[in-house]
Amino acid sequence: MSMLTLYNSLNTFLYLAALLFGMGVYGMVTHRTLIGMLISSELILVAASINFMAFNRFTAPDPTTGQIFTLFIMAIAAAEAAIGLSIVIAVYRNYKSVDTEDLVDLKG
Does residue 88 fall inside a structural domain? Predict the structure, then answer.
């Protein structure tokens, strides 16, 4: 099987997205720090973007639909990273730790 055949297959992109999504979910479950959870959530968003682009390339009649959804996902990921890191910095200033088990006394 040549590389061109793999590149022109929807299943290749879906397997890659499923792998990234699984790594992201595994990271969300196992990481104890907020930074690790933030990176894992970014992996989940990347998997969704790959799915949109793959379905856009192979099945969509309009070639811009999946690209627009992917741009929205990228904007959401950037906003999530900015807000998430600012929350992590604020939590570290107050508790001197970014471990999620140390933050059980937060109210809200």
Answer: yes
